[in-house]
Every structure is written in C-alpha cells, then in structure tokens.
Design goal:
Chain lengths: ~120, ~400
C-alpha cells in the first residue's frame, strides 16, 4: 500500500513513466521525461561538438577524446555540458565532468544519471 | 616529458601576444601619480583599468591613517590571525564591517581571493552541494577544487537554470550553497539577485554573494547589490574586498549565523597566512568611513559610468549589457583586442585586455573600469581616442554608427 500512497495518503497513479518524475516540478520545464536512448544522446553530443571538429576531417565517434581530438577548450566543454544537462534534465557535477575523456564516457554519464532520476 | 611541456599551447598563445611588441601581462607602472594617472613606458598615461572606483588610493586621510599606524605598530604583523597576528585594530575593522552590513559577524582575510577560496570551500562539505554561476571569478572556481562538496554550474545570470539544477537535486540530503556576484568583473553586468534569492528560498538554499566590484557602487549606503535589490537579509553570506573601492588589499565575509566564528579555526586560507599589516587595516577603516560619509562619490562614479558607456556606445562600440563601474568593450578576436589595447597604450591610455580563457564565452574584451576620480575631460578624451583607433583598425566603420559583432 505504501508504494502507491504519498505522505498525504493521496493515491498516486503510477505508471513506469511518472515513477521517474515523482519529485520533479513538472510545471517548471517541458523536457523529455523518459530516459533517453543512447543513440539520441550520442547524436546530440556530436551535434554540439561539430563546430570544434579537427581540421583533418576525422569524424566524431564514441572514441573521440574531447580535449585532445577536437579544438575545444575546457571552458567550452563545461558550457556544452550545461546545454546537455538541460536537454536531458540531468546535472553532471564538475568533478565528474573533469574525469570524462571520450564522447562515449560523456554519453554513458548522461544515461546513467537519467536512469537514476 | 618536461615540467613545462604541458603549457606548450599556452606558450604559443603567449608568444603571439608578445610579438605585438608590448606584453599586457608585464606592464610596469613606472610611477603612479594619482588614482587616474601613472607613468608607463616613460609616458604619462590615463588609467581606466584599475578598479579604483572611488579613487581613494591617494586620499590624504587614508594615507595619513596608514602612516600613523606604521609608526605606532610597525610594518607587519608577522603572523596569522590565529597566532600573533590579531591586533585590536583587526577586530575593530571586523566590527565596523559587520555594522556596515547590519550583520552580527565578520571575518577579515588578507586578500579577497583568500576570502572566497576559504569561505566557500569550507562552508560546504561532503554530501553538500555547491552551485555556482558559470561566469564566476577564479577564486570561486578554485574554491570548487578545494571543497569536498559536489559542484554544479548554472548558466550565467539565469535564475531558471539555477532552479532546474536545484530541482534535479530533489530530496537528496545535504546543504545547498549558491554563489553569486554583485557585479561580474569582465562585462560589468549584475546578477538578477531578487529572482535568484526567490529560487534559493524555494529550495531552502543558502546564498553567498561576492560584492567585490559593487561595494560602494551599489545600494543607498554602498553595501552592494544585496542592498540595491533589497535582499540583504536573505543573503546569508556577503563577501567583499578592500582592494577596489577601499583602495588597499584584503577581503571579508559577513554573516548572521551564530556559529560563524568556528570558521576562524577551520578556514585554511584564514589560518595559514599572515594577517593584514596595521597600515592596511588603518587605511581601510578610514576608507570605509569615507564610503559612509560621502555618498556623493557614488553619484560621481555613476555619472562617469554613464559618460563613458554612453559615449562609447554612441561611437558604435559593442559593450557589456548594462551600465556598471566595469565597462567591457567587445572586440572581434584575441589579436584585435591585443592590437587595440597596445594602440591605446601608445596613445597614453591604460585599460585591461581580457582574452580567452579568462573571459566568458570566449569573448575578447577591452575592460575599462571607471573611477569617481576621473574628470569629464579625461573620459571625453578617452572616448575620442578609442573611436579613432576603432576606425583605424576597422572595428568601427567610418562616421556612420554601426555596432560591431562580438564573434
């Protein structure tokens, strides 16, 4: 019973989807509430990184090392992360951002955080 | 791999800067003549980049107070505040700053950088959350490296971006501390503090505001943005500096928290450095008296801000978003900013040049700071010189008014 009642005893209609968002102030933002698919996250990261692609024309892949293979400085990386955070409604702590090296790792971090939401 | 190899990129960039003939990071003030003039490269130069907002560095009463203090108590304290470095005057200064804000407690630091570094890093601990504006000063970013709290960055001056990040924390246990600045040091824009405070209240977050560039400049009594926006009581911690409006060096933090003083034995940047010398404490106390007694200096500062900002805008320069004691002039790129800066110096005007990565969004800027001590003639002269150089370098096109792009 406790599973479907909140503190006020109000009945919560729980679908798989609103279990994820129960603590969210839905009125705040109109963002995607289901965890995103990996392909979706990858596509968005690649789109954001495109302007920083190296001159040699190498494509951005999961293995691309963000700070080395692209012409992007650490501040621009942090700004891009803020955009991704809002797009996928997660917050990536700064110390976690500092550890991220590849596009794959960035995508994995976003997916892991949105699964925990 | 050598110790300096990892700076290769920076060394290249720095070499680029130096090939223009003058190194903006190695400018030498051969002799400072007044709050608005110095000899640089053998030439009398107008200073419009020294953060000397009230022009108090040469105030006779502040200078006298410093000289007297040296005669009475010597040149330095040779010790930390928690050892032999706390004099009656340090405590008196703390009481006076606390009274100035109507707060119960104040801690004085040896620099403003150390105040932010120590206070912010120490206030939050493991399991707490520190939320900072993306355009925060280096001292705030360095506090983020020291703290054990989880750090999240929100979009510059965007309360909804802060709201989203506080909301995402949900019901996780741990304190939330939000760090804001009264006036941002690069573009001179101020925080929408009232809106930020409302968001912080909604999520029960503590507010720390750094009034480094707004002390004296904003508010009916010069307390800063926290006063001018009417939310001083909602700001749990106010940090500031003595090195700008008050014309010396040092930093402070005020608070009403009854346990605030425990920070004196937990904040490392307070404990493990020598305290301010008596001369500084004395001149700062006098400068604070002047801030309280002479509101006309604030009026003069804003008159000068309007003159410089509106004058440069009318010539077609792209400026920071609002009037402020810091006027940031956007230039298309790093090399143009450095070339422009050097042409200004050759013409006898010193401003700061700010280029990535020290600037938000990779912009290149000439950063001007206005003083109440500037005369109208000095500022008119500066506007004419800048417009002339702007036309020569193709930043301004001819006599028609056209706004230049920042990117």
């Amino acid at each position: 019973m406790s599973d479907i009642q909140n503190q006020n005893g109000e009945l919560l209609l729980r679908t798989a989807q609103n279990m994820i968002v129960e603590n969210d102030d839905v009125a705040d933002t109109l963002v995607l509430r289901r965890p995103p698919a990996r392909a979706e996250v990858m596509a968005e990261i690649c789109r954001q990184l495109e302007p920083f692609q190296a001159d040699d024309g190498r494509a951005i892949t999961g293995a691309t090392v963000i700070s080395k293979d692209l012409s992007i400085d650490s501040l621009a990386v942090m700004d891009m992360v803020m955009d991704l955070e809002d797009q996928f409604d997660v917050s990536i702590p700064m110390n976690v951002v500092a550890e991220i090296q590849t596009v794959d790792e960035l995508a994995d971090t976003i997916l892991a955080l949105s699964a925990r939401r | 791999m050598g110790l300096f190899d990892r700076h290769a990129g920076l060394l290249d960039a720095y070499r680029d800067v130096r090939t223009t003939g003058a190194d903006p990071f190695q400018i030498r003030m051969e002799r400072v003549l007044s709050p608005t003039e110095a000899i640089i490269n053998g030439k009398k130069t107008l200073l419009v980049g020294t953060n000397n907002y009230f022009g108090l560095t040469f105030d006779p009463s502040c200078m006298e107070a410093a000289i007297e203090a040296i005669r009475a108590e010597g040149t330095g304290t040779t010790g930390s505040r928690i050892a032999n470095g706390s004099y009656s005057e340090h405590v008196a200064l703390e009481q006076e700053i606390a009274e100035f804000y109507g707060k119960k407690h104040c801690m004085v630091f040896t620099t403003g950088y150390q105040a932010n570094l120590g206070i912010i890093a120490t206030l939050v601990g493991p399991d707490d959350f520190l939320l900072i504006d993306a355009d925060s000063h280096a001292s705030i970013y360095d506090a983020c490296k020291q703290t054990q709290a989880e750090v999240v960055r929100f979009k510059h001056n965007d309360p909804s971006s802060l709201d989203a990040r506080l909301r995402r924390l949900g019901d996780k246990p741990g304190n939330r501390l939000v760090v804001l600045e009264g006036i941002y040091s690069m573009l001179g824009d101020s925080a929408p503090l009232k809106e930020f405070v409302a968001v912080c209240k909604k999520y029960n977050a503590y507010v720390l505001i750094d009034e480094a560039h707004s002390l004296g400049a904003l508010g009916e009594h010069g307390r800063g943005l926290c006063e001018s926006t009417g939310v001083l009581d909602d700001c749990h911690f106010v940090v500031g500096t003595f090195s700008k409006t008050l014309g010396a060096i040092g930093g402070y933090c005020v608070s009403d928290d009854p346990d605030f003083d425990i920070l004196r034995v937990t904040t490392r940047s307070y404990m493990f450095t020598a305290s301010l010398p008596p001369s500084i404490v004395a001149s700062v106390r006098q400068a604070l008296r002047i801030v309280k007694a002479q509101p006309e200096l604030r009026t003069k500062l804003w008159d000068n801000v309007a003159a410089l900002y509106d004058g440069l805008a009318a010539k077609g320069f792209k400026l920071g978003p609002e009037h402020g004691p810091v006027v940031g002039v956007h230039l298309p790129d790093r090399m143009m900013a450095i070339g422009f800066w050097r042409a200004m110096l050759d013409a006898g005007i010193y401003v700061n040049v700010a280029v990535p990565p020290a600037t938000p969004n990779g912009v290149s800027l000439l950063r001007c700071s206005v003083s109440a001590a500037h005369t109208k003639e000095q500022l008119d002269h500066m506007i004419e010189v800048m417009a002339g150089i702007g036309r020569q370098l193709g930043v301004l096109s001819g006599p028609t008014l056209r706004v230049v792009s920042s990117r």
